[in-house]
Amino acid sequence: MNELKTLSNLLTRFQSQKPIRASSLIISLYGDSIEPHGSTVWLGSLINALEPIGISERLMRTSIFRLAQDGWLNSEKVGRKSYYGLTHQGHRKFEQAFQRIYSPSIQTWNGNWLLIIGYQLSPDEKKQLMDELQWQGFASVSTQLIASPCCDVKLLNNILTALKFEDKVIVFEASSNTQFSNKPIQELVKGAWNLETLGQQYQEFIELFQPVWQELTELERLDPKSCFLARTLLIHEYRKLLLRDPHLPRELLPIDWEGRAARQLCRNIYRRLTPATEKWIEFNLESVHGPLPEANALFFERFGGLN
Asked: pLDDT digits over 13-27, tens only?
């Protein structure tokens, strides 16, 4: 089997981050590799899996404990072994975040906007609301107005209900008028959603992973462990970008938007790494009942299909 030479660059980059955000990496691992295989795994196999990336046993135990305290994970002890699985809250968060990562494409925009007037919200409440809404494509376009061209009304209602803000905001639906110039909207989008900075971050992602793709196209047989580590870091880095990405309709994005190329690259690498990665997962990660089961059917629909 051929170990990936470009993996060393990915590992060095991750380990150079200070402090190492182990909890974030664990969340990426759960969403990408553990949730499709039953959602629960033995802590010992987690420690072994992420040790090559630079997560020590002590840091792993501390991070898992914090994730459990924050409601992401629950634990089950069988003999001397501890197993950690996703809570209901953890499942809900993963469904929202990872559906965006693996969806096949961005939907066509119908020209509609969701507008929120939050004049009854305190500054702390507005910040709390924006923390939930930013990755749903919302931005503050004035001191009192929050807007999004792409959020689902039902999802917005669920967020407002969960925060108990449904009686503190006014929600409007509006549509762009084609009789007027589109330039003010483009300027609004450029400023409110800070696309220039995000575009630079996508370009950095492309520069980091393009050599990985080049190497993958030259190898016939791949080392499963290398593939597992590379796929984990690939999705971790891509997930961090998507959490900053408002997922605006393509009609509102620049023609040469870097996010499109980054998504294509991520999809191509993911598809190439997955067969060997899945073999490694099933042989090296352990559930209460033994080796992790095969991935569920939804897993193979990622990025428009993995088969």
From this structure: 999 988 888 999 999
Domain ranges of the chain: 112-175, 194-304
The predicted-structure confidence for 249-265, as pLDDT tens digits, reads as follows 888 888 889 999 999 99
State the architecture of 112-175 in CATH terms: 2-Layer Sandwich (3.30)
SS (H, E, C) the chain: CECCCCHHHHHHHHHCCCCCCHHHHHHHHHHHHHHHHCCEEEHHHHHHHHHHHCCCHHHHHHHHHHHHHCCCEEEEEECCEEEEEECHHHHHHHHHHHHHHHCCCCCCCCCEEEEEECCCCCHHHHHHHHHHHHHHCCEECCCCEEEECCCCHHHHHHHHHHHCCCCCCEEEEEECCCCCCCHHHHHHHHHHCCHHHHHHHHHHHHHHHHHHHHHHHHCCCECHHHHHHHHHHHHHHHHHHHHHCCCCCHHHCCCCCHHHHHHHHHHHHHHHHHHHHHHHHHHHCEECCEECCCCCHHHHHHHHCCC
Let me know how long the chain is: 307
Q: What's this model's pTM, rounded to 2 decimal places?
A: 0.87
